[in-house]
Amino acid sequence: MSERTGWQRIARRIRVPMGFVFAGVFLWLARPTGWTLLVSLVLVIPGVWLRAYAAGYVRKNAELTTTGPYGYTRNPLYLGSMMIAFGFAFAGGRWSIGIVLAGLFLAIYLPTIRSEEAYLREKFAGFDAYAARVPRLLPRWTAAGGDGEGGAFSRALYLHHREYNALMGAGAIYLALAIRLWLLRS
User: Which of 7, 79, 93, 114 could form a disulfide with 31 if both were Cys (CB 3.0 to 4.6 A apart)?
Assistant: First the structure.
């Protein structure tokens, strides 16, 4: 296995716990309005959908998935997470939340993505050709035409990856923001 930097290893380990810490700070700082909550759905709903769709294709560590959303971006799960996070940052009604969030994504997710790419490059001979056709994060307009690995959407994979947790988490955050809005109006 290729040598990963110390920060890449740390970033991979702290990305989920840091998400929970940031969610707590976010809820404390948030100043939502009915309008910011409504407009945030433009990013949150497609982000949750993208994560669910991608989870139904990926067979982690077993094969290089190049079909479905993986034909448009190499990291649809992270792209979905970013859409959800920035949607909630907008819902929070503070630019400072979005700025801090952007910094956290650059500091934590970029090294994580690079680390995962190094792993995929070692494990799957076709990764470099795939990476040449499909962008790292921002999607192509049309599918790159994968080699068929990854097949069709699988509900079983979606359930196996427990991606329904993203939907439940988004619902919980909206509930917390609605309570926060109600308390701010009281």
Answer: 93
